[in-house]
Amino acid sequence: MEKELLIVWNEMHERLLNFVNSKVHDDDLSQDIVQEVFIKVFSKIDTLKDKDKLVAWIFQITRNEIVSYFRQNKIQLPADELVEDNEVLEDEYLDEIINYVHPMINVLPQKYKEALVLSDIENISQKELAEKLQISYSGAKSRVQRGRKLLKETFDKCCDITTDVYGGVIDCKPKDPFNQCD
What we know:
By secondary structure, this protein is mainly alpha-helical.
């Protein structure tokens, strides 16, 4: 478990710094809080009941450390910074998926990669996509659909994604955390 924890920690460190800094708006303080999180994660790893929820557990410890900082310093956390746990967990899983999506899009053939980036990441309409790529509208639609299908196949090879009945992501993890997909 320690080896897996170190791998996850190294992958998450920058994300945690950004997350903390978005709440406290101070780089040095963010470093300090993330260091406290690091200490707690490693000292309390034996309390984690479900190792598949390691990322969510680390984020929960991070949120608790941020709240502790605000309480200790008698600083009122702005109301818009407080988010329901379910929303935070959903955002965390979406963040986790985003970390997997970009490298996987990059391995797609160029024409599908370009179509997905423009339509799904840059949010341009498929009609605009057709004009930009100088292809027919139906060709643009087909290219995006094929790109999504290839991306899904790539995901299925490397990741286990669990969704709720509405299609919302409730869990995302690599099939083998020690083996990075190509």
